[in-house]
Amino acid sequence: MRRTAFARIAGARAGEHLDAMVRMPLGYGSRDSLASAGYRAACACLYAGMATKAAAAHAVAMEAAAGSPGFIRLAERVRLLRAASTAGAAGDTGSGAGVDGHGAASTAGAFAAVRLVRGAVPLPRRLLDEGVRRGTGVHGLRFRPEDLVGGFEELLAMTAAIASSGSLLALYALYQGRAAGLAREFLIVASGRPSRQPEGRPLDPLKGFPVATLPVDIVAPGAPHPLTARGYALVEELPEAPAAHRAAAPRTAPTPPPGSRKRARVRFPIGLKLVLVVSSLLVASLAAMNALASTFFLEDATQRVEENNHTVSQIAAVKVEDDTRSVADRARLALDLSGGDPDGEAVTRFFAANADILYVAVPGLAALPNRRALEAAGLSEDVVAAAAVDPGTGGVSVFNVAPALGIPSIGVAVPYREGGFSGSLVALASAERYAEALKPRGIVSAWVVNAEGRLILHPDSSLLAAGVDYSASPIVAALRASPVGNGQTRYRDLDGREYLGSFRRLEFGDLGVVAAAPADKAFEAVGTIQRRNLYIMGAVLSIAVVLAYFFSRTLTGPVGVLMGAALQIEAGRFELDMKATTRDELGALTETFAEMGRGLAEREKIKDAFGKFVDKTIADMALKGEIRLGGERRAATIFFSDIREFTSISESLQPEEVVEFLNQYLTRMVGCVNATGGRVDKFIGDAIMAVWGVPVSTGRDTVAAVEAAMAMRSSLREFNRGRGGPGKPLIRIGCGINAGPVLAGQIGSTERMEYTVIGDAVNLASRIEALNKPFHTDVLVSEYARSRLGDAYVLEPMPMIAVKGKAEPLRVYAVLRAASDSSGPRDMRDLRALLGYQEVPLDPDRVVDDEEKKYEILRDSVVPTPRGRSGT
């Protein structure tokens, strides 16, 4: 939004809210309403450039919100504000033509007009101390009117909300140069909210504002020293802003450090400078040599550890696979020898020769217990029989039965077919024979997990008895995701310790063998060498510093200028007004530094503009040159949403009104996507395509997508409040969610690319979204997405559909509510009542997609759902 348009809208809203506030009746029962109106009026006035009235309205709001006995003082404040509002003082019109409150009086309040000092915002210590006292830190959101991506009303509502919650510490209109004119930027300063995130950090109240900039921590939570963010200057109080007729302060070069001019008059012979250069080169060479030696030694040590891990994992894998196959083969042999008699002499001899086999059974056909081994282990046949249960995978499976039996043991289940019988053969065996293969070798330990990441074999019997789940371990995740079944990785485990690991997947039972060594133990020798090198380097540096102390004074002038320029670069001010004062290398460096600043300024402008149109993660990848054509197969959850009857809505509005309402709507919906960890892939007119699980998966992508859809349902209800009249039509949307494999990557040409996902799962999600219209629903999920939701949501099955390109009919489900939300819709009748739809019987002949034959609702599957029924 242009600055002039922003000021014009802000001025109009400021006048409306001021008029509404001063006309409110004064009474003890109207304090809350007066406080709310005061906060909105104060925010609108400050955005309009009326700092005096903003401070007065804020004072009224604070008096009303406090609920103190000083009602006479509150009435007097309202009376004065009413007089100021009707007086229409010059320069306080809200048009932005003039700015009031640039005196000392405005520096004491939370609402003020502030002049930037060399591009930095001066912040009083008392404001920062308040954030430190609360223990939540101080957050800042600095934005320009051009950065507004939502409607002004939404910006005003969100600012007033944090003001009324007590989190707002200051709201500043920022000016540079002359005080008169339109505000260049605005700054919202707030403390964190009392509620906390899972990691213990206070919530930032500035997240989600409809502007294209992100909040920063001016004072990090828990930081003892204030002002850690760039672009801010700590002062005791805000400086008095200059009058309108006062000329802007001249721009000067960075000031050298104190005492540098005096030191600049001290001159040394050029020979001493050469000595300093030689000394510096010597130190640099020594440091480079030490660094290279440490690096090469570290690489060699890493390679040796990785080779050892690989060897251990390969040997253990061969042994474990052979022993596990042996258990299955010997179990078959025992069954063949039994001849139906579990107590026969052949079975007795078999168990005497195979004491590690504890139990062999074919559920429903035969059971062969090794009574001698069970008696020695103190186990009953009933307990063992209860543990000998096929996991039901339909193939070969290996599982841990130590939690049930209390001793290190495993179970092996294989398909069994004999005559007309078809079932599974289950054998329980002691894990002691695996001890040799998995015993620790030096600092390397090995263990075995199944396809789900659960522990099967481990040298530590206590971990086996506990049935530890390693699915969250990074190396187990790498094992499960590896297409080749073996590899190496360096990772940090759940205990925070870093490891070097190797893994190999087994064909039998889909097991995985992992071998890992702690990095701190593997690199102890490297650390010793690095410390020794640091001691040597420190001694050389000490000598160099002593020499540099005598020969560096002639360099302090230009170096001071470069230091000041570097600080400006660090603070984000890249336009440097600096000139070379010498004709040596330092002079050339000064000119190069200034050129670099101009280049960084241009790069920052490109990056800011790029970030408005592309996801930040993708934008960073593009700037680093990491984007290439092609893609990778990923499991993702795809989301489509669309506004119902958008064509008729857009025809009834002016183009500017359509854009404004779309921006407000999309800001809310995108906020729901971002809050749940999703990524907006693209906007297709009024439609939104979002993806969870690409480029990074959280493990709960489908649940997060449905959470976003539920948040959209709630946000849309708030958005529709007050709508329904001319120019503000009611909005209904439809959301479709599907989960499945996609191809994620860059699609396009070498000149223009787009990071997106393609595949059948994407197309199906789009088809599902379109079904909301005939079904009179707002959120539909596919049967693939339903399988990943578990019991988190209450779902209602809809009629079967035939989708173009699918051989089998598919079932979709309407999302009624979260399972934990007892106040949500109970059935489809409640849902349609909530959405404003009438209950109309579904006629498949009327809802076939005849245009492209993308889907068809099957008549035989249309079954009326009784009230109160819901599928999960």
Mean pLDDT: 78
- Low-confidence blocks of residues: 68-72, 86-108, 239-266, 865-872
Q: Report Rg.
A: 36 Å
> What is the number of beta strands?
29
Number of helices: 27
Helix content: 40-55%
Structural class: alpha+beta
Q: What is the rounded distance between the termini?
A: 46 Å
How can the largest sheet be summarized?
Answer: 8 strands, mixed
Report the principal-axis shape: globular
Q: What amount of the residues lies in strands?
A: 15-25%
Description:
With 872 residues, the protein is α+β, with helices and mostly antiparallel strands. The radius of gyration is 36 Å and the shape is globular. Helix 2 (31-47) runs antiparallel to helix 3 (51-66). It is 42% helix and 20% strand. It has 27 helices and 29 strands.
Tell me the layout of helices and strands.
Elements: H1 3-22, H2 31-47, H3 51-66, H4 71-87, E1 111-115, E2 121-124, H5 125-134, E3 138-143, H6 152-164, E4 168-175, E5 185-191, E6 193-196, E7 202-203, E8 216-219, E9 232-235, H7 260-264, H8 270-338, H9 345-353, E10 357-362, E11 366-369, H10 371-377, H11 381-387, E12 397-400, H12 402-405, E13 409-418, E14 421-430, H13 435-438, E15 445-449, E16 455-457, H14 461-466, H15 474-481, E17 486-492, E18 498-505, E19 512-518, H16 519-522, H17 524-551, H18 556-570, H19 585-611, H20 616-623, E20 630-643, H21 646-651, H22 655-675, E21 679-684, E22 687-692, H23 701-720, E23 733-748, E24 753-758, H24 760-770, H25 772-775, E25 779-782, H26 783-786, E26 793-797, E27 801-803, E28 812-818, H27 828-835, E29 855-857
Parallel strand pairs: 1-4, 2-9, 23-25
Antiparallel strand pairs: 3-5, 3-8, 4-5, 6-7, 10-11, 10-14, 12-13, 13-14, 15-16, 15-19, 17-18, 18-19, 20-22, 20-23, 21-22, 23-24, 25-28, 26-28, 27-29
